[in-house]
Amino acid sequence: MQQTITFDMDLICRYNTAGPRYTSYPTAVQFHENFGEIDYHQEAKKTNTFASPLSLYLHIPFCDTVCFYCACNKIATKDRDLSSPYLAHVQKEIALQAELFDAGRPVEQLHWGGGTPTFLSHQQMQTLMQTIGEHFQLVKEGEYSIEIDPREASIETIELLHELNFNRMSLGVQDFDPKVQKAVNRIQTEEQTFKILDAARKVGFKSVSIDLIYGLPFQSVESFSSTLEKIVQVMPDRISVFNYAHLPKIFKPQRRINEVDLPSPTAKLEILQYVINYLTEAGYVYIGMDHFALPEDELAVAQRYGTLYRNFQGYSTHAGCDLIGLGTTSIGKVGDTYSQNVKTLGDYYPSIDAGKIPVFRGIILNQDDKLRREVITQLICNFQLDIPAIEKEYQIEFTHYFSEECIELEALQQDGLLTYNDNNITVLPAGRLLIRNICMIFDAYFRQSQNQNFSKVI
Ligand code: SF4
Questions:
Q1: 351 part of a folded domain
Q2: I need a labelling partner for 424 at 20 to 30 A (CA). Which of 80, 246, 383, 455 fits?
């Protein structure tokens, strides 16, 4: 089913509250420090019984300069030598982690994120992939992706990454307007971006995604339309248009953005409306939650077949993998757990030197968590929930188990966000942009706390 989407300004204004992005359920807010290395060991070893394929996420935290909108876990530095000790410790962590998982479990998915993964030298990237290959079963047909900052990559870098078996990349752009770029401290020419995109296509990358952000200083429909036009001319396989969430109390670099330069909430919604109309008219499918893809891209195909999944990197086609997080701050999903590595180099290095997996917090999911995760995943990925299938799998009576939630569903049904009956919940075109609000109904923790540190849903 191809997703259509309706932009209903009144509805959006009414429902535009703060809420999680559901890259996991429970969300990271629920991770606690009673979960540690021993729990991780036990849970990781249990997964060898099922021997699901593996997904590896590797975090390279360094960036040459800081973008003021940034909410990532990164270290801004000009000192390239910092990468050597980091690489040495990540290599040790790879070996420590590999001891927990049976050899031969294929790595179906691999992602290098950051920070800026290409902060590493070519030699270091080669060494890193070689180490991964020595400890894990890399496969030729795997989905291996990397985040690229076009300012930090050359044509030779792209050729090398292809040789290293990477076949998907996302290119950070945000906005081509020089005034916006200056205000967010990310000066990047169109030539830099398109040179990398061309190189990726020439060497045979299967999917190239371009990341944009709306809601940045000085943006307007007119200015952003010019960026969109240039991007659509080169037809990347995927386009992500993220909502800039201005949370300067939490993310320090954002304090350098002048609030008076930000577009008003109304102007921001007008930009979003323009983006949706423009991209769908240009032939892109709305996948959900800021993501668009060409109809033949595997994300759009997976959504049509109801097999799309969501994880810490966004939407994914590999639902069944155990995800191992490597490097500072990285999050893993192993068996029925989520776990996160320590956040600073000062904590990471001693832990690795002591031969310990540097997990500092996590959560073991109970049956209620697993049920709610399944409901939220189905809704956010496929805009549908098959109620009898959920009842069968989790041995529940839906309307009884979710009695309070069903009352709230009724209200959303009356507002035209969804239809709901004994057999299914179907998110309607007007509800697709508000999918986070629909998922929040099934989030037991959010219902209790209404945590205000989340970003606005739109
Ligand atoms: S947005 Fe990316 S490149 Fe910019 S500072 Fe953050 S992690 Fe680094």
A1: no
A2: 455
